[in-house]
Amino acid sequence: MAVRWGICSAGKISHDFTVALRTLPPGDHQVVAVAARDLQHAQEFAQKHSIPRAYGSYQELSDDPEIDVVYVGTIHPYHLTAGTLFMNAGKGVLCEKPMAMNLREVQELTATARKNNVFLMEAVWTRFFPVSLEVSRLLSQGEMGEVLMVRADLGAPLIHIPRLAERDLGGGAVLDLGIYCLQFVCLAFGGEKPESIQANGVKLDTGVDGTVVISLRFSRNRMAICTCSITMELTNDAMIVGSKGTIRVPSNMWCPTTLVVNGKETQYCLPEPGQSLNFLHSTGLSYEAEEVRQCLLKGLKESARMTLSDSALLAEIMDETRRQMNGNGSVHSIPEENRCWGTWLLCFLQPDDNHSLSCLS
C-alpha cells in the first residue's frame, strides 16, 4: 500500500523532493496534493508533476482526508506553524531542516506529534544516503576504534540569496549550513552531547551570522571543530579520526556519493531523475522518503536514524552557538542531567569541482 504524500510549498526543494519520489515505485509512494500560499503556483506545480489536487492554502491541505504524511518544504520560520497545523489534523510530517528556528520550537513540534500520536521527522536527508549508512556501520561496529577528533567545514559566497542573508527569513550560516557540520559531529560521537561549546565568528550587516567557527569538547578530551560560512568558499570536507583509522568524505558531503576509508575510495550511484533538478544530487531525497514509509509501515512515530532527540540536540547546539555570536563568546557547559544520547548515522557536505554550494537544498 502506497504512502500518500501532501506537499507543502511549491518551491524549488519541493520540486526536487517530488522528482525524487518519482524514482521510487508508484505502488509505494504517491503524491496526491500540493499546497502553496498562491493557488496559481500550486496549480502550476500540480500540472508539472501530475498531482491530482492543488490548494491555495495550507489549511486546505491539512483538511484533505487522503493524505498520510506531509512534506514541509517552506523556509525555516514557517516550520513550526505548518508542522503544527498538519499534525493537529492527524497527519505525519517530514519537515525540512532545520526542523525549527530554535530548541523551544523543536520541543513544541515534538510535543504536538506526541499529543496527536503522529509521525514526525526532521528531513536531514544526508543521514539516509548509502554513504551515510556505511559510515554508521563502520562506527557502530568499532572498525575505526574510538573517535578522537572530528572536523567539518562548509562554506560558499551565498549572501546574494535573501533567505540566507535576512534575519526575518531565517538566514545565517549556522541554521542553513552549520547544521550539516554539527550533525556530522553528532554522528561521530554517537549522539553524545558536548561537555562544552565555544563559538566565534563574524556577522553580516543584516545581523545574521556570516562565518562561524565552533569548537566542541566531548568526554575523555575528544574534540570537534566546525566551520561554516555564507560569505566565502571553504575546504568543504569532513573527517573522522579514530584510534584505528580515518573516515573522509571528500566531496558533496551534504549529498555524498564518495567515501574514503583508510585511503580506500568507494563510489555510490544515485537514482536518475525524470526531470531537471534545482539542487545537486536531489534524487537522494528518495532515501529519506523511503525511511518515512518504512516507519509508517511499522507503526513508528519517529525514525531511529533521525530521532526527535537528535533534532533537539542539534537545535540546542545551534542555539548556544548563536547565543555566543550575539554575546561574548564564552564557553557554555551543558549540565550533566540534561545530557542525552541520539542514534548513529551521518551527514556530510561539500561541493564537487563543478558545483558551488548554491546547489545545497
From TrEMBL:
Assembly and oligomerization: Homodimer.
Organism: Albula goreensis
Lineage: Eukaryota, Metazoa, Chordata, Craniata, Vertebrata
GO terms for MF: D-xylose 1-dehydrogenase (NADP+) activity; nucleotide binding; trans-1,2-dihydrobenzene-1,2-diol dehydrogenase activity
Record's catalysed reaction(s): (1R,2R)-1,2-dihydrobenzene-1,2-diol + NADP(+) = catechol + NADPH + H(+); D-xylose + NADP(+) = D-xylono-1,5-lactone + NADPH + H(+)
Keywords assigned by UniProt, alphabetized: NADP, Oxidoreductase
InterPro entries: Gfo/Idh/MocA-like_OxRdtase_N, Gfo/Idh/MocA_domain, GFO_IDH_MocA-like_dom, NAD(P)-bd_dom_sf
Annotated protein name in UniProt: Trans-1,2-dihydrobenzene-1,2-diol dehydrogenase
Pfam assignment, any one: GFO_IDH_MocA
Domain GFO/IDH/MocA-like oxidoreductase span(s) in chain numbering: 134-248
Domain of life: Eukaryota
Segments forming domain Gfo/Idh/MocA-like oxidoreductase N-terminal: 3-121
Gene3D superfamilies, A to Z: Dihydrodipicolinate Reductase, domain 2, NAD(P)-binding Rossmann-like Domain
